[in-house]
Amino acid sequence: MSLAASSHDQRFGLSRVAVLPGPLALDGSATLSPLEIAYETYGTLDADAGNAILVCHALTGDHHVASAHPRTGKPGWWQRMVGPGKPIDTDRFFVVCANVLGSCMGSSGPASIDPRTARAWGMTFPVITIRDMVRAQGLLLDYLGIGRLAAVVGGSMGGMQALSWAATYPERVASAVVIASTARHTAQNIAFHEVGRQAVMADPNWHGGDYYGGEAPARGLAVARMAAHITYLSEAGLTEKFGRRLQAREAKTFGFDADFQVESYLRHQGLSFTDRFDANSYLYITRAMDYYDLAEEHGGRLANAFNAATRFCLVSFDTDWLYPTAESRAIVQALNAAGAPVSFVELSSPYGHDAFLLESPELDRIVAGFLRA
Amino acid sequence: MLDVGCGTGDLMAALRDRSGVDARGLEIDAVKVADAVARGLSVIQGDADVDLAGYPDASFDFAILSQTLQTTRAPHLVLDHLLRIGRRAFVSFPNFAHWRVRLSLLWGGRMPVTRLLPERWYDTPNIHHVTIDDFRAFLKARGIAVERAWFLSGDQEIGGSAANFLAEHAVFLLARNQEDCSRLSQPV
């Protein structure tokens, strides 16, 4: 691979796909070879490749972090955080965002074609972990000529990847920003995901995951999304937004229509999700999150996962009950025990877990300051 | 160096910029933490009464508790942790036996509101008022060694014997007692 980071380098830019020969050895003992990773890059890579930041997306996210989605035209999912003059400043940093392994937005996943059978993998795709996603990103960075990251940044499942990066490749991560995240999935986290998976599997169109070319299990996936969506919001947020208000009607209908605005909203969220997401990918990625327990990977002691080589910045939100502040605090304590330089702050927001994606000047200030240091 | 109650990190930033000190901070106020992190400092939002327990033994050369002791719920335990975490500790506090404070209580019959204690009785964060003599007696009883002490009224340094009456605030440099250290290192 050439060392020149020229702006005409075909590896850099929007909507790229890297075909990586692998083999990628997975935690579940299977291997993937080759694998495809969809990604985007922003900014210019320094000659010494020292200004790279990897942004990791959440469960249903994609690599279009700061560019309009090529199909829907919607703005990037973290456009207020990433861009010229933004907290993750692309005038200064070379930003990489990759679609996670197992997803359906361009990287290899259950909806991709298994080269051995020339058919969609479906449930024959190997079960993956957060660490497998990180390893695949590691291969992508090798391909891009990036040895050590100035920072890895992520919220929610993106934060899990950031932590896993620091634990798996400490020598490759100078600093990590972990927002609204956790070092393990709790029983409650797993329980909500299991409701979603069972909803998908109970859909008669699921056919054991072998539905490609036919009708997708959209109703099951929509219910899964509705249940999950509730966990991303707060009670106060729901009350403020909907209260008990009725949906375009004067009175209750004494039926099972979406009488309440909150019902109508959730149905819409569920339905629109099925247009953009693959049900099997949802099963695989939620499984990866449920299997995630950073302490377990390091002899049961979270502090063993870290060393002092990486600077950390953690942020939680006071109304996030999916990954509450206590989870971030446990990570902070482990980082203290490991002697790692760590900053932590709990921000106030009425919006629950989703707050990390919303307007938050405080979050911007913290991320910008931490990355500048 | 660990600065407990570091505010927006002025001291940490000064020590870092002037002497290249590896400084870490603990601060309870989220807005102040955000300010400190935004200037590139490693600061954790937390409560000295609760979160010092999470730091490992002897992980810092110095632990600093500046004008914060009197606001903690359990000052004695906070000090124990300070001397467990740091090899030495700087502790400063406003002296409640300063003559102005005494005068206010004696003649005015009111809880003192002074330059260093500007809040009224109901909105003050200072819940454990302490005098220099109280603190000296406390250190003696707990076998904590005083390496140095500074007693100040404005910018003026006050001699040790008159300090309890004339000093507005005090700074102690403490060293942990070896016996204490081994006792505290026992896993809890």
From TrEMBL, chain A:
Catalytic activity entry: L-homoserine + acetyl-CoA = O-acetyl-L-homoserine + CoA
Biochemical pathway: Amino-acid biosynthesis; L-methionine biosynthesis via de novo pathway; O-acetyl-L-homoserine from L-homoserine: step 1/1
Cellular location(s): Cytoplasm
Main location: cytoplasm
Binding site for substrate: R225, D354
Pfam families: Abhydrolase_1
Function: Transfers an acetyl group from acetyl-CoA to L-homoserine, forming acetyl-L-homoserine.
Family note: Belongs to the AB hydrolase superfamily. MetX family.
Protein name listed in UniProt: Homoserine O-acetyltransferase
Species annotation: Sphingomonas palmae
